[in-house]
Amino acid sequence: MPRIVIFGAGAIGCWIGGRLAVGGADVVLVGRPRVLGELERGLQISELGGGQWTVHPTLATEVPATTDRDLILVCTKSAQTADAAAALANAPGTIVSMQNGVRNPDVLRAALPGRRVLAGMVPFNVVKRGPGSYHRGSGGTLTVENSDAAAPLTEACLHADVALALRDDMPAVQWAKLVMNLNNAINALAGIPLATELAQRGYRRILADAQREALDLLRAASIPVARVTLVPPRWMPRLLALPDPVFRRLAGRVVAIDPYARSSMWDDLEAKRPTEIDYINGEVVALAERLGTGARAPINAGLVALVRAAEQDGKRDYTAEALRQALQSITANAPAMAPTSRASRNRP
Known about the structure:
CATH superfamily of the largest domain: NAD(P)-binding Rossmann-like Domain
Distance between the termini: 37 Å
Mean pLDDT: 91
CATH topology of the largest domain: Rossmann fold
Strand order of the largest sheet: 5-2-1-6-7-8-11-12
Largest sheet: 8 strands, mixed
CATH class of the largest domain: Alpha Beta
Low-confidence stretches: 336-348
Radius of gyration: 20 Å
Shape: globular
Structural class: alpha/beta
Helix content: 40-55%
Number of helices: 17
């Protein structure tokens, strides 16, 4: 069976590693001692819509450099990608970036010349239900760059009954995921489950504005955006802006969401960790800066500013109307207050 290292035993890493182990893959989870300590009695995995397993993957605080592995799946936060590359410098195996954002595969390739690095995309949310217990909270299909080197992952997913798609347009897929992930900031600032937030038109209209802003900039930059759901990217803002009764009838056909699921950005704020705001909404701000000639991203810039404030114990329980007013206040003072994204300043 495939031999796979999961580098970054967070919620996504633990769920993917555990789910592949259910199918028989030989999995090593590499993470922090605190997280690994919760897994010593077993890793509990559950699926959206049913299915629960307990598995016992190998646990390690460092990549086993002396053990040949077919694949190394990098599941760390985007800010930790350079550190991940350093840790993987002497570890054999093809590397697959399963991270948020659009730049991590290039960061890994630049830091690891000569190594095979594939881009991947995780579309779904994972909820930590308790120590050592992880639940998939939304639907979607794992996606990886089309390559012969992805064969071990294809085999592992087949045995585990996990949907996997191979695509030749991964940059467009990553941008599509980023556009969907613009909701992470809104959910984190609302402080409520995703399903509850998306059931309210006020929040959805803010998300629609943020997505429309990003899609307009991507079109101006001639950057393609892939279709990764039943709804084409350009139609999504219109779907989000529909009245609640109409949206409820249509939304379930687009993506299933567990009633208790929350965004990973909410998880980060709850754990007092730095968020990935600069690699999601901040990436839209950085794109506007690169385009110049008056291009702006005021909604996404405002969300960046509010999440940064929340990282410093700022407000995290905005109603939809309060969030709209806060963004309008920031936009009104945009020349003085619009934040230059750290993503653009730190661009490799």
